[in-house]
Give the backbone structure.
Amino acid sequence: QEVLCYLAELACRAGRFDAAAAYATEAAETVEESGMAASQTHVVRFNQALAASYLGEVDEARRLATEGLALARENDDAFNGAWNAAVLGSLELSLGRFDQVHQHLAPVLAMTHAVADRERDWRQAIARGASMPAATGIDDLISKLAVDRAKARS
């Protein structure tokens, strides 16, 4: 499904919106069939919403992005939630509803700044000699998972 999502996004960037919608639909079907709907539907909803928005399907794009945003929140996935919120903000901008744009895009901007700050911190840690896993916190995560797994076994 991940490759299909990338293809959908690339097709949108290339102006091939019908192809993008087809890739996104196939990605959604793949997620459903694989049993990963609970953890991956919100990712696919962005691709579906983006294609629908470019095709002028405003109500469908809004429905898909709103669902994607809600599911992203349920999955504590701010990154993919921001993509869905960006579609909602873009829709409102396109419709001239400027008072609604900020509501959707402010959290996207905040997440973008947070990612930029984290990447800056990683680069600085690596420049000081830390390994990539240590700088990004992966070492800490692996240690925590090992402790959790040990607790679960006992």
Notes: The first helix runs from residue 2 to 13. The mean pLDDT is 88.
